[in-house]
Design a protein that fits this description.
The chain is mostly helical. The chain folds into 2 domains: about 110 residues, no CATH class; about 70 residues. The chain is about 50% helix and about 10% strand. It has 7 helices and 5 strands, in the order βααααααββββα. Strands 3-2-4 form a 3-stranded antiparallel sheet, with no helix packed on it. A hairpin with a 3-residue loop joins strand 2 and strand 3. Helix 5 runs antiparallel to helix 6. It is elongated, with a radius of gyration of 28 Å.
Length: about 200
Amino acid sequence: MVFGRQKAVAGSAAVKKISQRLTEFSAMERYILLSRLKTREKGLDIVDVEQLSEQYPSNEITHEKPRPWYLQLLNAFLNPFTGILLAIALISFVTNMLQASGDRDLSAVMVILILVLISGGLRFFQEFRSGREAEELRSMVKTTVTVIRRENGREEINMADLLPGDIVALSAGDMVPADLRVLHAKDLFISQSALTGESQPV
């Protein structure tokens, strides 16, 4: 059963409140919990789904927004290699200025600055392109979850459409889509390797 939608929460007070709510729900008797979430073991009905969908628009995990292009461009030039090249260019420029006017040659400085521009430009182009491709892949991947709804029984829906009070049916290999309370289980094992690194299921 779903307790609440996944959200990026700012502030320790909000995190503490959610933690207390989850602890409270985990200790409740099943019938009290179902009543509190205004649901039944046969799931939500169409009216409940419509009302809750207006109240809770999306069950999506907030992803980090890509940095603006100008920050990516700036970051492409802020690295040790560029710093060393600029230091060499500065030293070369200063030593050239100290020479007599007829012996001055700024070609080395120009070559180094061109190398810096090419290096930073290539790095920016690669990172910008890979960031865009990652965003496109993320938008293409749709994770689904099996829920029990009163009218349709078991149905597969997009994880973003999951609502508080939904009865979720999990089977082997399924990803837990939200904060849940187990109502019925048979041979339940959970792999926490992504969270704790522990390879054995518990």
